[in-house]
Amino acid sequence: MSASGHTKLLVTDLAATVQQVPSRYVRPISDRPNSSDVRPSNTYSFSVIDLHALDGPSRPDVIYQIRRACERDGFFLVKNHGVPEEMINGVMRITREFFRLPESERLKSYSDDPTKKTRLSTSFNVKTEKVANWRDFLRLHCYPLHLYVDEWPSNPPSFRKEVAEYCTTMRQLTLKLLEAISESLGLPKDSIANSIGSHGQHMALNYYPPCPQPDLTYGLPCHTDPNLITLLLQDQVPGLQVHRDGAWVALNPIPNTFIINIGDQMQVLSNDRYKSVLHRAVVNNSTERISIPTFYCPSPEAMIGPAKELIHDEHRPAFRNFTYSEYYQTFWSGELDTRRCLDLFRI
Ligand code: OGA
Ligand code: NI
After folding, report:
1. Whose CA is nearest to atom 8 of ligand 1?
2. Cα separation of 214 and 127, whole Å?
3. Looking at residue 43, what is its pLDDT?
4. Candidates 241, 264, 280, 291: which one to mutate for ligand 1, based on the most atoms within 8 Å of Cβ?
5. Helix axes 85-99, 159-184, angle to 10 degrees
6. Which domain holds residue 208?
7. pTM of model > 0.85
């Protein structure tokens, strides 16, 4: 057993030693990636929204595009977002360097406790899940930054500085998007930002090593994100898929764009108008893949429910009120793909 690498905590180290996927990663036949059924990226036109235009006379147009995308797809892409290319390349490079550190160095950050605010882990929740996923991830809480940055890895040496700058820039971009999304729902600009308590921001550095049998397992199975909105950066390796009109569609990388995913809290705030998008990540047998989601969220004590302005006689509240902390605990205590957390909060 030991020589086969089955005792490795991280799949990055396991992948280097196996020719076959160990049984704990193998999905039942009815639940496999089925790559022949996945539609190529170019079968659908996605909304690629030019954020530069938000500051000019065509703002109403852009707001309309955002509304359409959130109602129809639950996600959109953004370009001209103001995040410098060097910063994007920098956070990708530092992530790659982190996952290439020696196993013993990486394991200093390891934990299987989902309540820890800085931790390296694997799969989704190794304590509760029946089938594991071909992914390692470093999860960091990053707002307010000063509360967490001193727990972050200090190796590579520029990790804290570079990742902190990235987080701060991503927060600015998020706030701009929240204004636009509020407007797109017909709400005052500051409405969403004002209804999520003192705000929270987490990020994951996802690392998907090459997989000898990618048809048997997932990087991440089908899920929606439990937070408010996710700004996903991916490298040049395909792997992300979104669910659309009953089928899976590959969402292949476009350099210098972010994928903006509507999360469960936005679906609630919008009283079910905007859809939290179902998505998943598959792996491949030749190339490692990195993705870096920024998860923007309410603060734990924030009371979340449908916006009052969006409740009418014909639009009864679709969800009960809850604290984000209750939601988040429910999400992490379940399995990623077996039930939709959101449905547990429906009226
Ligand atoms: C996630 C996620 C997708 C990807 O981390 O929640 O959906 O492409 N990641 O890695
Ligand atoms: Ni996700």
Report:
1. 240
2. 23
3. 75
4. 291
5. 130
6. 3-345
7. yes
CA 220–ligand 1 middle distance (angstroms)? 7
Distance between start and end Cα atoms, the chain: 49
The number of folded domains in the chain is 1
Return the ∠ at Cα 279 (arms to 179 and 309), rounded to 5°: 35
162: domain CATH number is 2.60.120.330
d(CA 71, CA 74): 6
For 155-211, write each residue's pLDDT tens digit. Answer: 999 999 999 999 999 999 999 999 999 999 999 999 999 999 999 999 999 999 999
Question: Ligand 1: which atom is nearest the Cα of residue 234?
Answer: 8
Ligand 1: list residues with CB < 6 Å.
204, 206, 220, 225, 234, 239-240, 279, 281, 291, 293
Query: If you compute the radius of gyration of the chain from its CA atoms, what whole number of angstroms results?
Result: 20
Strands 229-234 and 258-262, how do they pair? antiparallel
Return d(Cα 128, Cα 236) in angstroms, integer.
32
